[in-house]
Fold this sequence. Notes:
Blueprint: E1 2-5, H1 20-35, E2 40-45, E3 50-62, H2 68-75, E4 86-97, H3 106-120, E5 128-134, H4 138-143, E6 147-148, E7 157-163
Parallel strand pairs: 4-5
Antiparallel strand pairs: 1-2, 2-3, 3-4, 5-7, 6-7
Amino acid sequence: MRIVRLTQEHTFKPFDCGEGDLNEFLLQDAKQYLKGLLAVTYIIEDEDITVAFFSLSNDRISLADSDKATWRRIRSMFPHRKHRSDYPAVKIGRLGVNVKAQNKHIGTDILDFVKQTFITKNRTGCCFVTVDALRAAVPFYKSNGFKPLCKENKGDTIPMYYDLTQLL
């Protein structure tokens, strides 16, 4: 397997993760997001298929994104003189694993790769990884150390975050 950064010239290998929206994003929208500087997509592929993909973009965490208790917990991680109205993050906008490769810890390996990349090669400063997790994916993200930003959320997705500073 190899990981490649999506380019406009990339030819996609077959991909189906079982989620139509994620399939459509990769195969129809990812290049437009790249062109518009909205997200960078990375593809993991083998000889025959696209094994998985994930897209990253800039994000932030602020009081407006979280409940007050979570915000207090986040702010308490930083010395008072370092308190801000928001804190920089990288957002996992999309993450999909081919149905032929699911249940092999590839999703966890991707999350570990993102975490390590932003600890060791962080070019802009970023202390959190965020994701708007589909409800069905919340247990997966929780098992990988992500926490909900809000106690209650009635939408289709749950905003979650991972504190990169705990890896230092």
